[in-house]
Amino acid sequence: MAIKISRSFVMRKLHQLTGIVPLGAFFFVHLFTNSKAMSGASVFNDAVADIHHIPYLLFVEVFGIFLPLLFHSVYGVFISAEMRPNGVNYGYGRNWFYIFQRVTGVFLFFFLLFHILNFRFGMIPGLNLTPVAGNAELAFAIVQKEFQITWVFILYVLGVTATAWHLAYGFFLFAVDWGILIGERAQKMALYACVGLAFFLSAVGINAMVAFNKKCGLLPSALCEEAEKKGIAEPDGSRRF
Amino acid sequence: MNEANVEKKRLENPPQTVDFRISRREKLDAAQYTETFTVPYRRNLNVISALMEIRKNPVTKEGKQTTPPVWNMSCLEQVCGICTIVINGRVRQACSALVDDLLLASGGNTITLEPMSKFPNVRDLTVDRTAMFDYLKRTKVWIELDGTHDLGSGPRMSQETVQERYAYSRCMTCGCCLEACPQYFDDNYIGPQAIAQVRYQNMHPSGKMTRDARLEALMEEDGIQNCGNAQNCVQVCPMSIPLTRAIYETNREATIYGLFGWLRK
Protein backbone atom coordinates (compact mmCIF):
# COMPACT_ATOMS: atom_id res chain seq x y z
CA MET A 1 0.00 0.00 0.00
CA ALA A 2 1.44 3.31 -1.04
CA ILE A 3 1.77 5.94 1.63
CA LYS A 4 -0.43 8.94 0.97
CA ILE A 5 1.21 12.19 1.93
CA SER A 6 -0.44 15.53 1.30
CA ARG A 7 1.34 18.47 -0.24
CA SER A 8 0.94 20.57 2.91
CA PHE A 9 2.53 17.82 5.03
CA VAL A 10 5.66 17.77 2.86
CA MET A 11 5.78 21.56 2.64
CA ARG A 12 5.45 22.05 6.41
CA LYS A 13 8.13 19.49 7.17
CA LEU A 14 10.39 21.06 4.55
CA HIS A 15 9.67 24.51 5.97
CA GLN A 16 10.62 23.37 9.46
CA LEU A 17 13.75 21.63 8.19
CA THR A 18 15.05 24.50 6.04
CA GLY A 19 14.69 26.80 9.04
CA ILE A 20 17.23 24.67 10.93
CA VAL A 21 19.42 23.44 8.08
CA PRO A 22 20.68 25.32 6.15
CA LEU A 23 19.28 28.66 7.38
CA GLY A 24 19.86 28.19 11.12
CA ALA A 25 23.31 26.78 10.54
CA PHE A 26 24.07 29.67 8.20
CA PHE A 27 23.07 32.20 10.86
CA PHE A 28 25.66 30.74 13.25
CA VAL A 29 28.36 30.96 10.57
CA HIS A 30 27.23 34.50 9.73
CA LEU A 31 27.52 35.65 13.36
CA PHE A 32 30.92 33.95 13.64
CA THR A 33 32.20 35.90 10.62
CA ASN A 34 30.64 39.15 11.83
CA SER A 35 32.31 38.73 15.21
CA LYS A 36 35.70 38.81 13.54
CA ALA A 37 35.09 42.55 13.20
CA MET A 38 36.02 42.68 16.91
CA SER A 39 39.63 42.14 15.89
CA GLY A 40 39.66 44.90 13.34
CA ALA A 41 39.27 45.59 9.65
CA SER A 42 41.87 43.29 8.17
CA VAL A 43 40.75 40.22 10.15
CA PHE A 44 37.18 40.86 9.04
CA ASN A 45 38.11 41.55 5.43
CA ASP A 46 40.22 38.39 5.36
CA ALA A 47 37.20 36.45 6.63
CA VAL A 48 35.08 37.91 3.83
CA ALA A 49 37.81 37.02 1.33
CA ASP A 50 37.83 33.46 2.72
CA ILE A 51 34.13 33.21 1.97
CA HIS A 52 34.85 34.36 -1.56
CA HIS A 53 37.27 31.45 -1.86
CA ILE A 54 34.73 28.76 -0.98
CA PRO A 55 34.78 26.23 -3.84
CA TYR A 56 31.59 26.09 -5.91
CA LEU A 57 30.65 29.38 -4.23
CA LEU A 58 27.86 30.19 -6.68
CA PHE A 59 26.16 26.82 -6.08
CA VAL A 60 26.65 27.03 -2.33
CA GLU A 61 25.11 30.48 -2.34
CA VAL A 62 22.17 29.60 -4.59
CA PHE A 63 21.30 26.13 -3.25
CA GLY A 64 22.57 26.59 0.29
CA ILE A 65 21.19 30.04 1.03
CA PHE A 66 19.09 31.80 -1.58
CA LEU A 67 16.69 29.01 -2.54
CA PRO A 68 16.11 27.70 1.01
CA LEU A 69 15.68 31.29 2.19
CA LEU A 70 13.25 32.07 -0.60
CA PHE A 71 11.21 28.94 0.15
CA HIS A 72 11.26 29.40 3.93
CA SER A 73 10.30 33.06 3.79
CA VAL A 74 7.64 32.89 1.07
CA TYR A 75 5.96 29.79 2.47
CA GLY A 76 6.36 31.30 5.93
CA VAL A 77 4.36 34.34 4.87
CA PHE A 78 1.61 31.99 3.64
CA ILE A 79 1.63 30.18 6.99
CA SER A 80 1.46 33.51 8.82
CA ALA A 81 -1.56 34.51 6.76
CA GLU A 82 -3.41 31.48 8.21
CA MET A 83 -3.18 32.93 11.70
CA ARG A 84 -6.38 33.94 13.48
CA PRO A 85 -4.70 35.64 16.45
CA ASN A 86 -6.59 35.66 19.75
CA GLY A 87 -3.92 36.69 22.23
CA VAL A 88 -6.19 39.25 23.86
CA ASN A 89 -8.78 36.72 25.04
CA TYR A 90 -6.38 33.80 25.47
CA GLY A 91 -3.25 35.56 26.72
CA TYR A 92 -1.12 32.50 27.43
CA GLY A 93 2.64 32.69 26.97
CA ARG A 94 2.73 30.08 24.23
CA ASN A 95 -0.08 31.83 22.37
CA TRP A 96 1.99 35.03 22.32
CA PHE A 97 5.05 33.07 21.20
CA TYR A 98 2.93 31.63 18.40
CA ILE A 99 1.89 35.13 17.31
CA PHE A 100 5.39 36.52 17.77
CA GLN A 101 6.96 33.78 15.63
CA ARG A 102 4.75 34.92 12.75
CA VAL A 103 5.24 38.63 13.40
CA THR A 104 9.03 38.26 13.48
CA GLY A 105 8.84 36.05 10.40
CA VAL A 106 6.99 38.64 8.34
CA PHE A 107 9.26 41.41 9.65
CA LEU A 108 12.32 39.36 8.72
CA PHE A 109 10.95 38.80 5.24
CA PHE A 110 11.25 42.54 4.60
CA PHE A 111 14.35 43.05 6.72
CA LEU A 112 16.32 40.34 4.92
CA LEU A 113 15.24 41.69 1.56
CA PHE A 114 16.65 45.05 2.65
CA HIS A 115 19.76 43.49 4.19
CA ILE A 116 20.65 41.47 1.08
CA LEU A 117 20.10 44.40 -1.27
CA ASN A 118 21.94 46.69 1.12
CA PHE A 119 25.15 44.70 1.56
CA ARG A 120 25.27 41.73 -0.83
CA PHE A 121 24.22 43.75 -3.85
CA GLY A 122 24.59 47.43 -2.79
CA MET A 123 21.35 48.37 -4.44
CA ILE A 124 19.44 50.50 -1.91
CA PRO A 125 19.33 54.05 -3.31
CA GLY A 126 20.69 56.64 -0.91
CA LEU A 127 22.62 54.02 1.06
CA ASN A 128 25.64 51.85 0.29
CA LEU A 129 26.02 51.22 -3.45
CA THR A 130 29.11 48.97 -3.38
CA PRO A 131 28.31 45.25 -3.16
CA VAL A 132 30.32 43.51 -0.45
CA ALA A 133 30.41 40.48 -2.72
CA GLY A 134 33.53 40.81 -4.86
CA ASN A 135 34.88 43.70 -2.77
CA ALA A 136 36.25 41.87 0.25
CA GLU A 137 38.92 44.52 0.85
CA LEU A 138 36.19 47.16 1.27
CA ALA A 139 33.83 45.01 3.36
CA PHE A 140 34.70 46.49 6.76
CA ALA A 141 34.59 50.08 5.53
CA ILE A 142 31.22 49.56 3.83
CA VAL A 143 29.59 48.14 6.95
CA GLN A 144 31.27 50.70 9.19
CA LYS A 145 29.93 53.61 7.17
CA GLU A 146 26.44 52.10 7.07
CA PHE A 147 26.29 51.53 10.82
CA GLN A 148 27.13 55.17 11.48
CA ILE A 149 23.64 56.02 10.23
CA THR A 150 21.46 55.78 13.34
CA TRP A 151 18.25 54.45 11.78
CA VAL A 152 20.15 51.81 9.82
CA PHE A 153 21.91 50.70 13.00
CA ILE A 154 18.60 50.49 14.90
CA LEU A 155 17.02 48.57 12.03
CA TYR A 156 19.85 46.05 12.13
CA VAL A 157 19.61 45.70 15.92
CA LEU A 158 15.92 44.84 15.45
CA GLY A 159 16.78 42.50 12.61
CA VAL A 160 19.43 40.62 14.59
CA THR A 161 17.20 40.35 17.67
CA ALA A 162 14.21 39.17 15.64
CA THR A 163 16.35 36.58 13.85
CA ALA A 164 17.82 35.36 17.14
CA TRP A 165 14.36 34.84 18.64
CA HIS A 166 12.82 33.40 15.48
CA LEU A 167 15.66 30.87 15.22
CA ALA A 168 15.84 29.99 18.93
CA TYR A 169 12.09 29.43 19.18
CA GLY A 170 12.29 27.78 15.78
CA PHE A 171 14.54 25.10 17.29
CA PHE A 172 11.82 24.50 19.87
CA LEU A 173 9.09 24.33 17.23
CA PHE A 174 11.14 21.97 15.09
CA ALA A 175 11.68 19.60 18.01
CA VAL A 176 8.00 19.72 18.86
CA ASP A 177 6.69 19.34 15.30
CA TRP A 178 8.96 16.42 14.52
CA GLY A 179 7.86 14.65 17.67
CA ILE A 180 11.26 14.87 19.37
CA LEU A 181 10.06 16.97 22.29
CA ILE A 182 6.83 15.62 23.77
CA GLY A 183 6.46 15.91 27.54
CA GLU A 184 5.33 19.01 29.38
CA ARG A 185 8.41 19.17 31.58
CA ALA A 186 10.79 18.53 28.70
CA GLN A 187 9.15 21.34 26.76
CA LYS A 188 9.50 23.72 29.67
CA MET A 189 13.21 22.98 30.00
CA ALA A 190 13.72 23.30 26.25
CA LEU A 191 11.90 26.62 26.26
CA TYR A 192 14.26 28.01 28.91
CA ALA A 193 17.20 26.83 26.81
CA CYS A 194 15.72 28.56 23.75
CA VAL A 195 15.23 31.83 25.61
CA GLY A 196 18.85 31.59 26.74
CA LEU A 197 20.00 30.91 23.20
CA ALA A 198 18.00 33.86 21.88
CA PHE A 199 19.67 36.22 24.37
CA PHE A 200 23.09 34.79 23.57
CA LEU A 201 22.66 35.12 19.79
CA SER A 202 21.28 38.67 20.10
CA ALA A 203 24.18 39.68 22.30
CA VAL A 204 26.79 38.22 19.94
CA GLY A 205 25.09 39.76 16.91
CA ILE A 206 24.73 43.23 18.41
CA ASN A 207 28.26 43.17 19.81
CA ALA A 208 29.61 42.40 16.34
CA MET A 209 27.67 45.37 14.97
CA VAL A 210 29.10 47.71 17.58
CA ALA A 211 32.59 46.38 16.81
CA PHE A 212 32.53 48.03 13.39
CA ASN A 213 32.78 51.43 15.05
CA LYS A 214 34.28 50.58 18.43
CA LYS A 215 37.07 48.09 18.75
CA CYS A 216 36.03 44.84 20.40
CA GLY A 217 32.43 46.03 20.48
CA LEU A 218 30.85 46.30 23.92
CA LEU A 219 33.56 44.21 25.53
CA PRO A 220 36.69 45.78 27.04
CA SER A 221 39.18 46.14 24.23
CA ALA A 222 41.80 44.30 26.31
CA LEU A 223 40.04 41.12 25.23
CA CYS A 224 40.92 41.88 21.62
CA GLU A 225 44.50 42.94 22.38
CA GLU A 226 45.95 39.86 20.75
CA ALA A 227 45.20 40.88 17.19
CA GLU A 228 46.37 44.42 17.79
CA LYS A 229 49.79 43.31 18.97
CA LYS A 230 50.25 41.31 15.81
CA GLY A 231 50.05 44.53 13.87
CA ILE A 232 46.63 44.05 12.41
CA ALA A 233 44.75 47.15 11.34
CA GLU A 234 42.49 49.14 13.62
CA PRO A 235 38.80 49.51 12.86
CA ASP A 236 39.55 52.90 11.33
CA GLY A 237 41.88 51.22 8.81
CA SER A 238 45.16 52.55 10.24
CA ARG A 239 47.93 50.14 11.09
CA ARG A 240 49.77 50.13 14.36
CA PHE A 241 53.12 48.42 14.89
CA MET B 1 -8.48 17.54 43.52
CA ASN B 2 -8.08 19.91 46.45
CA GLU B 3 -10.26 22.42 44.67
CA ALA B 4 -13.40 20.77 46.00
CA ASN B 5 -12.43 21.61 49.57
CA VAL B 6 -11.72 25.27 48.89
CA GLU B 7 -14.57 27.63 49.66
CA LYS B 8 -15.50 29.43 46.44
CA LYS B 9 -15.06 33.16 46.51
CA ARG B 10 -18.35 35.04 46.57
CA LEU B 11 -19.25 38.63 45.79
CA GLU B 12 -19.31 40.52 49.08
CA ASN B 13 -21.57 43.31 47.84
CA PRO B 14 -23.50 41.75 44.99
CA PRO B 15 -25.34 44.10 42.61
CA GLN B 16 -29.13 44.22 42.50
CA THR B 17 -29.15 43.18 38.84
CA VAL B 18 -26.75 41.79 36.25
CA ASP B 19 -26.75 42.77 32.56
CA PHE B 20 -26.37 40.12 29.88
CA ARG B 21 -25.25 41.27 26.42
CA ILE B 22 -26.34 38.46 24.15
CA SER B 23 -25.47 37.94 20.49
CA ARG B 24 -28.64 37.30 18.49
CA ARG B 25 -29.13 35.84 15.05
CA GLU B 26 -32.48 34.93 13.54
CA LYS B 27 -31.18 32.04 11.46
CA LEU B 28 -28.07 30.79 9.66
CA ASP B 29 -26.49 33.59 7.58
CA ALA B 30 -28.89 36.23 8.91
CA ALA B 31 -27.36 39.41 10.34
CA GLN B 32 -25.97 39.25 13.86
CA TYR B 33 -26.92 41.85 16.48
CA THR B 34 -26.79 42.16 20.25
CA GLU B 35 -29.49 42.65 22.86
CA THR B 36 -28.98 43.40 26.53
CA PHE B 37 -31.16 41.88 29.21
CA THR B 38 -31.26 42.68 32.91
CA VAL B 39 -31.55 39.81 35.35
CA PRO B 40 -32.10 40.22 39.11
CA TYR B 41 -29.08 38.95 41.00
CA ARG B 42 -29.40 35.97 43.29
CA ARG B 43 -26.88 33.73 45.00
CA ASN B 44 -25.44 30.84 42.92
CA LEU B 45 -26.80 32.25 39.68
CA ASN B 46 -25.08 30.68 36.68
CA VAL B 47 -25.29 31.60 33.01
CA ILE B 48 -27.88 28.91 32.18
CA SER B 49 -30.16 29.90 35.05
CA ALA B 50 -29.82 33.53 33.98
CA LEU B 51 -30.80 32.57 30.42
CA MET B 52 -33.82 30.70 31.84
CA GLU B 53 -34.73 33.83 33.77
CA ILE B 54 -34.55 35.90 30.57
CA ARG B 55 -36.69 33.32 28.73
CA LYS B 56 -39.51 33.81 31.25
CA ASN B 57 -39.90 37.42 30.19
CA PRO B 58 -37.85 38.30 27.10
CA VAL B 59 -37.82 42.10 27.42
CA THR B 60 -34.58 43.95 26.72
CA LYS B 61 -33.02 46.45 29.07
CA GLU B 62 -34.55 49.23 26.95
CA GLY B 63 -37.99 47.69 27.50
CA LYS B 64 -38.42 46.19 24.05
CA GLN B 65 -40.39 42.95 23.82
CA THR B 66 -38.35 40.37 21.90
CA THR B 67 -38.01 36.64 21.25
CA PRO B 68 -36.34 34.54 23.96
CA PRO B 69 -32.66 33.88 23.17
CA VAL B 70 -32.01 30.32 21.97
CA TRP B 71 -29.29 28.18 23.51
CA ASN B 72 -28.44 24.50 23.97
CA MET B 73 -28.28 22.66 27.27
CA SER B 74 -28.56 19.14 28.55
CA CYS B 75 -26.60 17.68 31.45
CA LEU B 76 -26.03 20.91 33.42
CA GLU B 77 -22.91 19.43 35.06
CA GLN B 78 -20.18 20.04 32.47
CA VAL B 79 -20.03 16.54 31.03
CA CYS B 80 -22.09 16.81 27.84
CA GLY B 81 -20.51 19.92 26.33
CA ILE B 82 -23.60 21.05 24.46
CA CYS B 83 -23.95 24.42 26.25
CA THR B 84 -20.48 25.60 25.15
CA ILE B 85 -20.57 29.34 24.33
CA VAL B 86 -18.18 32.27 24.48
CA ILE B 87 -18.58 34.09 27.79
CA ASN B 88 -16.78 37.41 28.23
CA GLY B 89 -14.57 36.51 25.28
CA ARG B 90 -13.59 33.06 26.53
CA VAL B 91 -15.04 29.75 25.43
CA ARG B 92 -16.51 27.54 28.16
CA GLN B 93 -19.62 25.69 29.27
CA ALA B 94 -22.47 28.00 30.29
CA CYS B 95 -23.77 25.59 32.96
CA SER B 96 -20.60 25.76 35.04
CA ALA B 97 -20.05 29.51 34.54
CA LEU B 98 -21.06 31.08 37.85
CA VAL B 99 -22.14 34.70 37.70
CA ASP B 100 -20.20 35.49 40.89
CA ASP B 101 -16.96 34.19 39.34
CA LEU B 102 -17.54 36.09 36.10
CA LEU B 103 -18.23 39.39 37.87
CA LEU B 104 -15.25 38.91 40.18
CA ALA B 105 -12.99 38.24 37.19
CA SER B 106 -14.24 41.15 35.07
CA GLY B 107 -14.88 43.62 37.87
CA GLY B 108 -17.90 44.87 35.92
CA ASN B 109 -21.63 44.32 35.97
CA THR B 110 -22.15 43.04 32.42
CA ILE B 111 -21.65 39.55 31.06
CA THR B 112 -21.24 39.05 27.31
CA LEU B 113 -22.57 35.88 25.70
CA GLU B 114 -21.65 34.95 22.14
CA PRO B 115 -21.90 31.74 20.12
CA MET B 116 -18.66 29.94 19.20
CA SER B 117 -17.17 31.67 16.16
CA LYS B 118 -15.63 28.64 14.45
CA PHE B 119 -18.87 26.79 13.70
CA PRO B 120 -21.95 27.72 11.65
CA ASN B 121 -24.17 29.84 13.90
CA VAL B 122 -27.62 28.32 13.56
CA ARG B 123 -29.45 30.76 15.81
CA ASP B 124 -28.55 33.08 18.71
CA LEU B 125 -26.15 31.04 20.86
CA THR B 126 -26.48 27.69 19.10
CA VAL B 127 -23.97 26.34 16.61
CA ASP B 128 -23.75 23.32 14.34
CA ARG B 129 -20.79 21.16 15.34
CA THR B 130 -21.22 18.51 12.66
CA ALA B 131 -17.66 19.22 11.46
CA MET B 132 -16.25 17.70 14.66
CA PHE B 133 -18.13 14.44 14.13
CA ASP B 134 -17.10 14.35 10.49
CA TYR B 135 -13.46 14.55 11.60
CA LEU B 136 -14.03 11.59 13.90
CA LYS B 137 -15.52 9.58 11.04
CA ARG B 138 -12.72 10.54 8.68
CA THR B 139 -10.00 9.54 11.13
CA LYS B 140 -11.76 6.21 11.90
CA VAL B 141 -11.59 6.59 15.66
CA TRP B 142 -13.06 3.23 16.49
CA ILE B 143 -11.72 -0.27 16.80
CA GLU B 144 -12.48 -2.68 13.98
CA LEU B 145 -14.05 -5.76 15.50
CA ASP B 146 -16.22 -7.27 12.82
CA GLY B 147 -17.48 -10.82 12.66
CA THR B 148 -19.88 -13.01 14.57
CA HIS B 149 -17.31 -15.52 15.78
CA ASP B 150 -15.80 -15.40 19.27
CA LEU B 151 -12.57 -13.40 19.19
CA GLY B 152 -11.62 -14.30 22.72
CA SER B 153 -10.48 -11.77 25.28
CA GLY B 154 -8.56 -8.72 24.04
CA PRO B 155 -4.88 -8.04 24.66
CA ARG B 156 -3.88 -6.60 28.00
CA MET B 157 -2.91 -2.97 28.49
CA SER B 158 -0.43 -1.58 31.01
CA GLN B 159 -1.82 0.54 33.81
CA GLU B 160 -0.03 3.61 32.38
CA THR B 161 -1.70 3.12 29.01
CA VAL B 162 -5.09 2.67 30.65
CA GLN B 163 -4.71 5.90 32.60
CA GLU B 164 -3.53 7.94 29.64
CA ARG B 165 -6.30 6.56 27.46
CA TYR B 166 -8.84 7.34 30.16
CA ALA B 167 -7.82 11.00 29.93
CA TYR B 168 -8.51 11.01 26.18
CA SER B 169 -11.78 9.15 26.66
CA ARG B 170 -13.19 12.10 28.60
CA CYS B 171 -13.56 14.21 25.44
CA MET B 172 -17.16 15.43 25.11
CA THR B 173 -16.74 17.03 21.64
CA CYS B 174 -17.67 20.42 23.12
CA GLY B 175 -15.50 22.45 20.71
CA CYS B 176 -13.60 24.59 23.24
CA CYS B 177 -10.21 23.52 21.82
CA LEU B 178 -11.21 24.39 18.26
CA GLU B 179 -12.71 27.73 19.27
CA ALA B 180 -9.50 28.77 21.07
CA CYS B 181 -7.15 27.41 18.39
CA PRO B 182 -5.69 30.22 16.24
CA GLN B 183 -5.03 27.75 13.40
CA TYR B 184 -8.56 26.31 13.28
CA PHE B 185 -11.06 27.88 10.90
CA ASP B 186 -13.00 26.65 7.87
CA ASP B 187 -11.05 23.70 6.45
CA ASN B 188 -7.59 24.89 7.48
CA TYR B 189 -6.79 22.41 10.25
CA ILE B 190 -8.42 19.30 11.63
CA GLY B 191 -7.83 20.45 15.20
CA PRO B 192 -6.85 18.91 18.53
CA GLN B 193 -10.02 16.95 19.34
CA ALA B 194 -9.73 14.53 16.41
CA ILE B 195 -5.98 14.14 16.95
CA ALA B 196 -6.55 13.25 20.61
CA GLN B 197 -9.14 10.65 19.59
CA VAL B 198 -6.72 9.18 17.06
CA ARG B 199 -4.14 8.92 19.83
CA TYR B 200 -6.80 7.33 22.05
CA GLN B 201 -7.47 4.55 19.52
CA ASN B 202 -3.86 4.17 18.38
CA MET B 203 -2.81 3.46 21.97
CA HIS B 204 -5.25 0.55 22.15
CA PRO B 205 -3.57 -2.79 21.36
CA SER B 206 -6.37 -3.75 18.95
CA GLY B 207 -6.74 -0.20 17.64
CA LYS B 208 -3.06 -0.23 16.68
CA MET B 209 -3.85 -2.67 13.89
CA THR B 210 -5.41 0.14 11.84
CA ARG B 211 -3.02 2.83 13.01
CA ASP B 212 -1.68 3.67 9.55
CA ALA B 213 -5.12 4.45 8.14
CA ARG B 214 -5.74 6.92 10.98
CA LEU B 215 -2.32 8.52 10.55
CA GLU B 216 -2.94 8.99 6.84
CA ALA B 217 -6.28 10.63 7.54
CA LEU B 218 -4.43 12.99 9.90
CA MET B 219 -1.82 13.84 7.26
CA GLU B 220 -4.18 15.19 4.62
CA GLU B 221 -4.07 18.84 3.52
CA ASP B 222 -5.70 20.08 6.74
CA GLY B 223 -3.82 17.59 8.89
CA ILE B 224 -1.77 17.53 12.07
CA GLN B 225 1.10 19.39 10.39
CA ASN B 226 -0.96 22.59 10.51
CA CYS B 227 -0.77 22.74 14.30
CA GLY B 228 0.86 26.06 15.26
CA ASN B 229 1.83 25.11 18.84
CA ALA B 230 -0.03 28.00 20.44
CA GLN B 231 -1.23 25.40 22.97
CA ASN B 232 -4.47 27.24 23.74
CA CYS B 233 -6.36 23.95 23.35
CA VAL B 234 -4.89 22.34 26.42
CA GLN B 235 -5.45 25.53 28.42
CA VAL B 236 -9.16 25.81 27.66
CA CYS B 237 -10.08 22.11 27.68
CA PRO B 238 -12.77 21.76 30.41
CA MET B 239 -11.96 18.05 30.81
CA SER B 240 -8.20 18.66 31.24
CA ILE B 241 -7.37 16.33 28.36
CA PRO B 242 -3.62 16.34 27.57
CA LEU B 243 -4.36 17.51 24.02
CA THR B 244 -0.85 18.76 23.28
CA ARG B 245 0.61 15.46 24.43
CA ALA B 246 -1.69 13.69 21.96
CA ILE B 247 -0.57 16.04 19.19
CA TYR B 248 3.15 15.63 19.87
CA GLU B 249 3.01 11.85 20.35
CA THR B 250 1.14 11.66 17.06
CA ASN B 251 3.62 14.11 15.48
CA ARG B 252 6.35 11.60 16.21
CA GLU B 253 4.40 8.76 14.62
CA ALA B 254 3.33 10.87 11.64
CA THR B 255 6.85 12.18 11.03
CA ILE B 256 8.39 8.74 11.12
CA TYR B 257 5.59 7.26 9.05
CA GLY B 258 5.41 10.11 6.54
CA LEU B 259 9.08 10.86 6.05
CA PHE B 260 10.69 7.49 6.52
CA GLY B 261 7.85 5.06 5.74
CA TRP B 262 8.77 4.91 2.06
CA LEU B 263 12.26 3.70 2.98
CA ARG B 264 10.68 0.44 4.11
CA LYS B 265 9.08 -0.24 0.73
TrEMBL record, chain B:
PROSITE patterns documented for this protein: 4FE4S_FER_1, 4FE4S_FER_2
GO terms classed as biological process: respiratory electron transport chain; tricarboxylic acid cycle
InterPro entries, per the entry: 2Fe-2S_ferredoxin-like_sf, 4Fe4S_Fe-S-bd, 4Fe4S_Fe_S_CS, Beta-grasp_dom_sf, Helical_ferredxn, SDH/FRD_Iron-Sulfur, Succ_DH/fum_Rdtase_Fe-S, Succ_DH/fum_Rdtase_N
GO molecular function: 2 iron, 2 sulfur cluster binding; 3 iron, 4 sulfur cluster binding; 4 iron, 4 sulfur cluster binding; electron transfer activity; metal ion binding; succinate dehydrogenase (quinone) activity
Gene3D superfamilies the UniProt entry points to: 3.10.20.30, Alpha-helical ferredoxin
Coiled coil: none
Span of domain 4Fe-4S ferredoxin-type: 162-193
EC assignment: 1.3.5.1
Pfam families (UniProt xref): Fer2_3 (PF13085), Fer4_8 (PF13183)
Superkingdom of this protein's organism: Bacteria
Enzyme class: oxidoreductase
The protein's required cofactors: [3Fe-4S] cluster; [4Fe-4S] cluster; [2Fe-2S] cluster
Keywords: 2Fe-2S, 3Fe-4S, 4Fe-4S, Iron, Iron-sulfur, Metal-binding, Oxidoreductase, Tricarboxylic acid cycle
Family: Belongs to the succinate dehydrogenase/fumarate reductase iron-sulfur protein family.
Cross-referenced PANTHER family: SUCCINATE DEHYDROGENASE [UBIQUINONE] IRON-SULFUR SUBUNIT, MITOCHONDRIAL, SUCCINATE DEHYDROGENASE IRON-SULFUR PROTEIN
Name under which the protein is recorded: succinate dehydrogenase
Organism: uncultured Pyrinomonadaceae bacterium
